[in-house]
């Protein structure tokens, strides 16, 4: 490959955007394609807010990646003059024997991460926005916070363009074919010959022939916003992000960023599979709304428990809920990053960095063996 290889990035959600940024600043000639435009709301990288956590219930092996990601979020903020990550702390709330509560405590202890275990009485004083049963606890992660997804995608692509990347928006890649010297990428408007392809198509992975066999399923995730009675008590300076686990419900909870409402993403009402990501419904059914409202009424005493806004999004999931990151099985000069299974946003900068390393050097300094796409081959 030449000193400044020509690289196509297919998809500019958060993962493709970060990959384009890290590749371009290392001198690659980047062409970044998307069916839509940066910051759109039809995939996985939209919806006003995303959780950043360091004490990671999904596994201690992610902690080095999360630490590096936190530094890269700050670098992107500096490079683009954007405010993207607010460290407001994070809570995992539930019964002490809940699997998520057990997992965050184990991760914090195994990795020596700062955290506090708070009983229900103390939580009632410090975080009255949440109602806990007397036998529940909260685990506080001071290095957690909230990210702003749409500005983050746009900032990464702005930084990529500043470093020389070319964005090709509103052009779906219809065909990607291996050639004698690399790949040919075709849209309805043009064909482009490149040395390497990075696939970052999110839930659309199986639409692309080289990825057809990867086990990525598109699932619908719905978010609801509830008006806060006292907005000041629900802003980032007083309300951490939270993963709420209760015997009757479960959700992620985000402080107010719009000055009106807080957002929850219910987990207990299911994330149904969509046959095709393009079949994303644009609202939720009444049963879903009733379930979300009843969780808010029971567990969030400071909100009006009827949503004032609903957002629907589609994410790619794998059978083990861990992403597929690495060389495309059976292909040369092709890298894939997909199937982030509901927890990829916070890690996007480090995945962009390691994708750039894989393209430019064939290897990466980060330990991602457990994410190899070949594990399902
Ligand atoms: C509602 C919701 C809440 C979440 N909460 C969190 C959270 O709190 N914290 C966290 O860390 N993670 C969270 N996640 C997960 C995280 O947001 C995703 O893992 C991440 O956004 C995935 O980004 P992506 O770039 O892989 O996918 P996407 O954002 O879907 O991007 C894929 C892009 O590829 C484009 N594309 C696809 N096929 C083609 C083609 N053939 N040609 C051209 N373009 C193409 C699409 O248009 C799209 O723009 C959440 C996800 C959802 C949906």
From TrEMBL:
UniProt entry tagged with the keyword Oxidoreductase: yes
Keywords: FAD, Flavoprotein, Oxidoreductase
Domain FAD dependent oxidoreductase, residue spans: 6-358
Cofactor: FAD
Protein name (record): Glycine/D-amino acid oxidase, deaminating
Keyword Mitochondrion: no
One Pfam family, short name: DAO
Family matches, as InterPro entries: FAD-dep_OxRdtase, FAD/NAD-bd_sf, MTOX
